[in-house]
Design goal:
InterPro entries: CUB_dom (IPR000859). This protein has 2 helices and 12 strands. It is mainly β.
């Protein structure tokens, strides 16, 4: 066990608060709210306007307003997917400019055809934040590079014909 802890100290960069270590704090990526819908290929778009490229280990979407749903029935309104009583109620996906999925991590995705998933501690209707992490395998975000926020059904163009609504978020990252 001690050997594992020692190895982790040398292989995983630290996010401990140290003087001058700004990467411990969340850095806001967007200049104005990012809004996305769940049909019609209406993803939200963010560009990296931070001063330099970053190795991103975590991303946080902070809910600012709106509702989305997977059906015309308003009883299914949610912030992050569809309030349907499903075990996989989340459908918010982060991609690069070529629509390669960055978040959520693959192990959370339960339906690859429509990209529905669940995450521990996240409620699709009430959670104010949706936090994605992958500290072991960060992704490289070049300056001015585009990221997209999608609903999975819209990204896959499957079952999105009856989806409705719009959600707006602020986007934050943790980086090395």
């Amino acid at each position: 066990m001690l050997l594992i802890l020692v190895l982790l100290c040398f292989t995983v960069p630290s996010f401990t608060q140290q003087p001058g270590n700004k990467s411990f704090e969340w850095a806001q990526l967007n200049l104005r709210q990012v809004c996305f819908e769940c049909s019609g290929d209406r993803h939200g778009t963010i560009y990296n306007f931070l001063s330099e490229p970053r190795l991103v280990a975590a991303m946080k979407l902070v809910y600012r307003g709106g509702e989305i749903r997977c059906t015309p029935n308003k009883a299914y309104n949610s912030r992050w997917g569809c309030h349907s009583g499903s075990k996989t109620p989340l459908n918010v996906i982060v991609t690069d400019q070529r629509n390669n999925i960055i978040y959520p991590r693959t192990e959370y995705l339960k339906d690859l055809s429509t990209l529905w998933y669940a995450m521990p501690g996240v409620d699709e209707s009430y959670s104010k934040e949706l936090v994605f992490t992958n500290f072991g395998v960060p992704f490289y975000l070049e300056k001015h590079r585009e990221l997209r926020i999608w609903c999975g059904e819209d990204l896959k163009n499957k079952n999105d014909g009856d989806n409705q609504g719009r959600v707006c978020v602020d986007v934050y990252i943790k980086y090395y």
